[in-house]
Amino acid sequence: MSAENTAMFTDRYELTMVSAALRDGTAHRSCTFEVFARRLPDGRRFGVVAGTGRVIDALAGFRFGDEQLRALADSVDADTLDWLRDYRFGGSIDGYREGELFFPGSPILSVRSTFAEAVLLETLVLSVLNHDSAIASAAARMVTAAGNRPIIEMGSRRTHESAAVASARAAYLAGMASTSNLEATRRYGVPGAGTSAHSFTLAHTGPDGPDERAAFAAQVDALGVGTTLLVDTYDITQGVINAIEVAGTGLGGVRIDSGDLGVLARQVRAQLDDLGAHDTRIVVSGDLDEYAIAALRAEPVDAYGVGTSLVTGSGAPTAGMVYKLVEVDGIGVAKRSSHKESRGGAKAAARSARSTGTIVEEIIYPAGGAVPDTGGLATTDLQIPLVRDGEPVDGLPTLTEGRDHLADALVSLPWEGLGLSRGEPAIPTRFALP
């Protein structure tokens, strides 16, 4: 997104607020906005922060050039247009690193600047974080259910073309092994994967009918015997026979994309072993989610492919994050609306853990204050500097480092926090606030 102008990824009311604030002087008041989720999606035990890197990249493109100003000429007054022409975010941002766990109330992002500078970023920040964190949270559940078996992300055809790229990035952050999306590979370095679809097999049909062997032979000739052959276009049993006859017992893998995957995986494993293809892997795909993956845990499956459920957050397509003003000129402010309350004042966060590394609670306390007493438990600060004076901080964690961090964080959860059953958040949040 860094090469793209992102200024118009903004709701109209943000500009009308800036216009009014410029008139009455509020625009220049020092403010802190915070991003947090009031609650986790129904039944979820934890959330995963993703998209922080994309937010920082998007800031570089948040500029109102001639094209954007022309588009706004009939929407805002001349003074506001002049102000927008010179807009550059010059404030500071702290937040949870990508790959960090979050819970209800976690101050995932703290944006400090003038009111006008900071309020303009609400829609952009939330659209990125809500999407990417929802995908990463779902993906982490799938990765946990899969154990040490790899998952291929292949959801591009089930979502918006730009969302597909962001989804692949978030899925990789959460521990998925690879993606079918080439733009995610180009832009973010996510490992790519993919061989063929049913259409390739169907294309090898002549006057005498389907020729599955010819399709397999063409694929092996192009990609080598290490490739994975899709064996369920016609009859799976015959498909496996054809695959091994064409590629030999050194065939890399076979993929099953339909039917009762558990039953079929057992049958195919037995058949491959009888044919001497003991090392040929079985990959399954077809509307898998974390529950289906968990149900296949005891089956002879070597890898999974996920699509629709991944790019839709497996039933929770948004992380439910909000962007709220919490401090004005050092004075805490809070929203009192029923069921939409906020807590005033800028905040910091820490997480306590036992000597074993298992986390116990999240503690939210006033920014600049000392971490409240934890009874001797070790604590870790959760927010890190992300932006200073409008520029990204040097040495921010990479996507790979975020991936490694999340893998360690998931191990630190109490064991029940990794369950797929409904329940309370894996750890409680303590608000040590005035």
From TrEMBL:
Enumerate the catalysed reactions: 5-phospho-alpha-D-ribose 1-diphosphate + nicotinate + ATP + H2O = nicotinate beta-D-ribonucleotide + ADP + phosphate + diphosphate
Domain spans labelled Nicotinate phosphoribosyltransferase N-terminal: 8-130
Pfam families, alphabetized: NAPRTase_N (PF17767)
CDD domains xref list: NAPRTase_A (cd01570)
Q: Which GO terms describe its molecular function?
A: glycosyltransferase activity
EC main group: ligase
- Annotated pathway, please? Cofactor biosynthesis; NAD(+) biosynthesis; nicotinate D-ribonucleotide from nicotinate: step 1/1
InterPro entries named among the record's database cross-references: Aldolase_TIM (IPR013785), NAPRTase_N (IPR040727), Nic_PRibTrfase-Fam (IPR007229), Nic_PRibTrfase_pncB (IPR006405), Nicotinate_pribotase-like_C (IPR036068)
Keywords, ordered alphabetically: Glycosyltransferase, Ligase, Phosphoprotein, Pyridine nucleotide biosynthesis, Transferase
Question: EC no.?
Answer: 6.3.4.21
> How is the protein modified post-translationally, according to the record?
Transiently phosphorylated on a His residue during the reaction cycle. Phosphorylation strongly increases the affinity for substrates and increases the rate of nicotinate D-ribonucleotide production. Dephosphorylation regenerates the low-affinity form of the enzyme, leading to product release.
Q: Does the keyword Repeat apply?
A: no
Family membership, please give it. Belongs to the NAPRTase family.
NCBIfam families, per the entry: NAPRTase_put, PRK09243.1-5, PRK12484.1
Instruction: Quote the function comment for this protein.
Output: Catalyzes the first step in the biosynthesis of NAD from nicotinic acid, the ATP-dependent synthesis of beta-nicotinate D-ribonucleotide from nicotinate and 5-phospho-D-ribose 1-phosphate.
Name of the featured protein = Nicotinate phosphoribosyltransferase
Species of origin = Williamsia phyllosphaerae
